[in-house]
Write a structure and sequence with these properties.
Layout (H helix, E strand, L loop, with lengths): L14 E8 L5 H13 L5 E9 L4 H8 L6 E7 L1 H4 L22 H4 L6 E4 L3 E3 L3 H5 L8 E5 L1 H5 L1 H11 L8 E8 L1 H6 L2 H11 L7 H9 L3 E3 L8 H5 L12 E3 L15 H8 L5 H9 L3 H23 L10
Parallel strand pairs: 1-2, 1-4, 2-3, 6-8
Antiparallel strand pairs: 4-7, 5-9, 6-7
Length: 324
């Protein structure tokens, strides 16, 4: 693992808020936006300890992100190349996903000093102090997460969550992009041992690591307020745009990227923070160079994903009527 990049943060009696990201070089510009929003909404009462898990980030990008450090914001890059070498062939990915999506699953073993942490995807912006989310009481639940709006709003994915992943009710299928992890309970549960076994026995192709999390943790999940994981896809499916206290974190997942398209719900919040970063021109360049061919590939990917979910459903029986 890399040693600390940058300066240490003095404690000064503040509460420590451990926050994890997992990215590669391709997502660094959007990580910068996420961290900008986190810093802008931070409180001087807390120490925000940010750990970025990676296997492929250039020193130039590490140095740029490290500039976000301040008196109560600490950033460390954690090189996982050696750690994942033995199991990387088991980490199935498809389309635009990279193996970094799995790295959050190794946090309980990597960080025995923590009892609870917060994991965030890097396609998000915060509008509130993330410490308020971290302070949610998980009890003896393994994780805390908000319902996944893709699952909630699209029938084929509802069926997939219940029939293939095996959750009793699709409303309890959570999105793993904003995830409170009860590391103490996950270690007692032998989570990593069970995960590695599952990786060798089951292949989840639709939501990959998120499916494994939902399968392994079902029955021990605290459902958190959707204000902490608002997705533009829900607005596209007819949900009104959230405002005020109902909008604390925006998650630009799937194809709903302001850096690709115009008229994405909540896009003004993304650009508000993007314009403050030194990656602003890079992000504008990504948007300008997003072609009609890229758009077509994205639409094809979405269509194929729905077909895949349907095929997976067709390959298992359906005993749900006996549970209701």
């Amino acid at each position: 693992m890399d040693k600390k990049q940058g300066t240490n943060v003095e404690n000064k009696g503040r509460k420590e808020i451990p926050i994890f990201f997992a990215v590669d070089d391709g997502y660094i510009p959007f990580l910068a936006v996420s961290i900008q929003s986190l810093v802008d909404n931070s409180s001087k009462e807390n120490n925000y300890v940010i750990k970025i898990l990676y296997t492929n980030i250039s020193k130039e990008n590490r140095d740029k992100i490290s500039k976000y450090e301040k008196e109560n914001v600490n950033i460390e890059f954690v090189d996982l190349n050696e750690y994942v070498e033995e199991i990387k062939e088991k980490l199935f990915t498809r389309d635009y996903y990279s193996k970094t999506t799995y790295y959050r699953l190794f946090i309980p073993t990597l960080y025995p000093q923590y009892n609870k942490i917060l994991y965030l995807d890097s396609d998000i912006v915060l509008l509130s102090d993330v410490a308020d989310l971290y302070n949610e009481d998980l009890g003896d639940n393994l994780v805390g997460g908000a319902p996944d709006d893709v699952i909630q709003t699209i029938e084929v994915f509802r069926n997939y969550a219940e029939k293939v992943v095996g959750v009793a009710d699709y409303k309890n299928y959570f999105n793993a992009g904003i995830l409170l992890m009860n590391l103490d309970q996950l270690r007692k549960f032998n989570f990593q041992e069970k995960l590695i076994y599952s990786l060798g026995q089951i292949k989840f192709s639709v939501a990959q690591d998120q499916d494994y999390l939902n399968r392994l943790c079902k029955g021990r999940v605290k459902i958190i307020n959707k204000a902490w994981n608002r997705m533009p896809v829900a607005v596209a499916q007819g949900e009104p745009e959230a405002k005020g206290e109902n909008l604390k974190l925006i998650h630009y997942n799937l194809a709903f990227k302001p850096w690709h398209f115009e008229d994405i719900p909540y896009q003004e919040h993304f650009w508000n923070y993007a314009n403050k970063t030194e990656y602003k021109d890079v992000i504008l360049g990504i948007k300008a160079n997003y072609t009609e061919e890229d758009k077509f590939k994205g639409e094809e990917s979405d269509r194929k994903l729905r077909e895949l979910a349907q095929y997976e459903c067709d390959c298992v029986g359906d005993d749900r009527r006996n549970r209701r």
